[in-house]
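Next comes the chain:
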Amino acid sequence: FQTNVFGMYWLSAAALNALGDGGAIINCTSVVSYKGSDELLDYAGTKGAITAFTRSLSANLAERGIRVNAVAPGPIWTPLNPMGGASPEKLRNFGQDTPLGRAGQPWEVAPSFLFLACDDSSYMTGQVLHPNGGIIVGG
């Protein structure tokens, strides 16, 4: 929580001093915020907090024209994967349980952040984009 939630909270508070009307805050949550995880309880809890914070802050800042959204990636290959203590078997099958049958790559997630940062998303606030290989969440 210290890193994922408190750090995001204090960074958002500091950014508000620099953001003018029409600014954007983009948080990073996770697919586990929606589907849970039997192995990553602490991580899933922090990502759920980020989703709730994003939605709450968006309502708080809408009057100022500051949009607050988030991106909730699914399984994505990053340097953390081999460093996180997962077994070779788990790494070999990482992401294969998604409908697309594979883990994503960072460059497949980056456009979601770019979209939320630009004026093309000017009518979105309190929303979460889901680059997750087709995992259906929230419905």
Remarks:
- The CA atoms of residues 68 and 105 lie 24 Å apart.
- The helical segments are 2-18, 32-35, 41-61, 80-83, 88-92, 106-117.
- The first strand starts at residue 24 and ends at 28.
- Residues 41-61 form the longest helix (21 residues).
